[in-house]
Write a structure and sequence with these properties.
This protein is α+β, with helices and mostly antiparallel strands. It folds into two domains: about 5-125, 2-Layer Sandwich (Alpha-Beta Plaits), CATH 3.30.70.1130; about 130-350, no CATH class. The protein has 16 helices and four strands. A four-stranded antiparallel β-sheet has the order 2-3-1-4. A hairpin with a 7-residue loop joins strand 2 (about 40-45) and strand 3 (about 55-60).
Length: about 375
Amino acid sequence: MNSDLNWWTIRFFHHGAGKDRLMRDALMPALAGLRAGGQVRAAFLQRHWLRGPHVQVNVQTTPDALPGVTEALRTAGLDWWAAHGPPVDLTADAYLRRFTSVAQAELVTEPLLPLVPGGTVTTGPLRMREEMFGGPRGAAAARAFWNDTQDVLRAALDPRAQQEGRLPTFLRWAFTFAHAFEGLGEESFCSVPSVGLTFKSHAEAYFFNGNESLRAPFEHKRLQAAGLIGRLYLEAREPDQDLLPLRAAFRDAYGRIMEDLAAQTLRLPTTLDYHAMEGEDARPLTETLSAWHAGLADPDSDLSRLSREPEIVARRLLVNLMYQQMITAGGRALDRLFVCYVASRTIEDAFRDRPWTAPRPRPVTPRAALVGTL
């Protein structure tokens, strides 16, 4: 394969359920054959919300190989539909009636219309909002991570895993993430408690944004499943063969992101940057912060300074790549919140007597500095 490699997206539009099986039983085997034959260098499947209208197959290949790659994947998808029933094709009105409220619950920001007819297969360049990943280098790290974790995704889509439920799978991922960085740098910034701060930050932000009523039922559910949760946490300290590739992918991506941060070739957006990118009305920063995040309003506070430590910044990007893989595996925003809450509470209980990570000593930063999140 020559040096003209580029990334392309083949989209399979299907307005109903069954996308798990389409990915697992049709598209993944076809991709494996294309990889083995050398037509595809790297690839990853993706969907942006559980009931979204399409599945994306993102492939790195050459322009010469692209027609054959597209046809092989298209044939695999159409053959699967022929064997398991035609793809669901809803009118725009029917789609909106069925899924508008679902999309809101899933925190979907992309427009629901125009709606491409079900059964359509399209090909085009891969579109990534690279600024959301900190620039081209961050986007490249994201693609590499998703490529490296396709076997983990396939295992999550396996019917046996789905019989157990998605939440135990996602908790395994989160606990593997929590333990993945030990030994990769200064202990206080690579420890499990320091990773727990990321989960705590995301859970508190979600509760603050209109979901506080979920805290009590989540705690009740956590206590009911305490035995299972504790076992999953302990098992993640020494991952089994199924999770070793995930741990390796976390560590590889972390090293790559840390190098880019050191070289200043990657800059993650701040909280205010994200608001601007999503077209949200500018609000005073204090109005967007939970009580737990209040320190972020002062760029000189310990919390604000800690949020800018490179290890925290690197994991902030990486944990969001894991969240996207959860979505592709069929996770909902509610599942992600529960996983964040359980992971943070489990780590808090395991390290109850250990002080939280403090920022490194450094000169006071300019008051004009913008803050990030953990």
